[in-house]
Amino acid sequence: MVNPPPLITLSGVSKQYGHEAQGYVSVLQDINLTIHAGEFVALVGPSGSGKSTLMHILGALDHATQGVYRFAGQDVSQLSADQLSQLRRTVFGFVFQRYFLIPGISAQENVELPTVYAGLEKRLRHDHAQALLGQLSLSDRFDYKPEQLSGGQQQRVSIARALINGGDVLFADEPTGALDSVNGESVLVLLETLAASGRTVILVTHNPDVANRARRVIELRDGRIVSDTVRAASAPAETMNTHWLVASGGKTDRYALLRQAWRTLLFSPLRSALTLLGIAIGIASILVMLGIGEGARQEMSKTLSRLGSTLMTVIPQSIDADVAAGRITDADIEALKQLPDIDAVVPMLTGQATVRQGTFNLKSAVIATTAEAMVVNNWGLGAGTFIMPLHEYANMSVTVLGAEVAQRSFPSGNAVGSDILLNNIPFTVVGVLAPQGGADMNGNLDQAVIVPFGTGSLRVIGRQNIDSVTVKARSLQTVRRVESEVNDLLSARHQRPDFTIINRAAILRSQEESMDIMTAMLGSIAAISLLVGGIGVMNVMLMSVAERTREIGIRLAVGARQQDIQFQFLWEAVILALSGGVVGLLAGYFLAHVVHTFGKPVALGFFPALLSFCSAIVTGLLFGYLPARKAARLDPVMALNQE
Length: 643
Hints:
The protein is an alpha+beta fold. It has 3 domains: 37-53 and 81-251, Rossmann fold, CATH 3.40.50; 264-301 and 510-640, no CATH class; 317-498, no CATH class.
């Protein structure tokens, strides 16, 4: 009968730690060993003999510094990280002295963990885990957390976890070391039963009595094998092939990892809430700041739209202090009207008058202008009519009241057709302006009265010097040309630059640029808040990685891929950031409403909300990446040994 090839072959395997500068420490030296499928082997030796290091190499948790380790004929050093994870997930099972169950999740969920990374369907995971726990007399402990179980029960849970994906090769590292004699004996009996069923069991212990329960005892001292004793024949088992190298089995159940990530955050509610608060403050800041900026922009746009983008204002005053003020005459007005690109020319004269109606007195601004003023300046009319050409021609004593003046003078609302006194001169109210909602280039029209130009200059204001002229270009494209034409015309007529042209389109552009700067500044301030929140997320996740190092080692030992670890920690950060984003959005809308109730313009549209929410996602991904990457790159052995 031909002997089957060995399952495990070590040839000249050595393991060293340290650096060339500081010197190396040899833990294993020139290990040559073969183990066949179905053997029950005990690695025995005193503390520091290298037995645990040898088990870590055999279990693909660590690698040899020198030599060759073949498993089922495959050189393990040639396997990729994912293939090593696959080997641990589908072939190996680990039972540790301190059980190494993940706190905060149930016994059943601990047992199911390897199948999550194997991609087993949820119902099958539950069935397999419950069946194994039932076989180990734990059918009434499915939902118990590790801290609610005795030491013996925890060890049986870890054995069930080692078996759930098959566990063809079991590594038991001091499995009875933390148990009393009764529970220790039950664990040894269970390992003997598993070995008798054909599984390969490799037991690590320093206790000779425990080692003698195995059929083969290999003793190590100072990193070398000093004896290899076969006490009894092992149960026959088929030699394993390398089917586990072909594919990774199923894909990891990412939804299960998401649920675990969520539950992990709930396991530390205060820390999660404080971290979430940092993100929420940042998101709320972005939303409110952008809302305030957009609200101010819209308010400014409304004001500037009333100015008119095709309008310009000419005032008889030079920007040069050395040039004396000029005078715009009726002849200048007529000359301006002859320019081909001009649609309208509206002179204006301003002053003050006492408005009296019955016992009511009010000091108000008076604007003397022409019939074209309403259309040119886009003034809305609330009631009656505006000044008519006939009113101008006949210098009639008629007036149009601003909305506030009309409301205060005629509380009953019957202003049109009534008489009113302006500086004790009777005028008939022919119209009332609609509320203008603020000031324009002509002041606050809601608090003004408007009269025909001739009537105002002769009877109310008492002078004829024109204060300003509003010029309307035919189109936005001709504004610059009209400005140049007006400048040339008046310069030629006055022989000196004793006037100033105010281009309202230029004002509009300037104000828009200012609003862009203000919005960018507000957004930058909010972004700093979000940056601080993101740094908080990163700090918390780095702390989480440090605190959960052993958990990461456990997950790697049961077959998690590096990307699985990275996915879980990255999504913990994203969940924190998204939760903070939702809270921040709600808080932002609430704060915006509060700001709005104080009369401040706030505009919250879809884009600021979308930008804020996307910022939360990006923050989670960006600041969660480094901790997740750090977690994924942990060494399994160092992680498991982390206190």
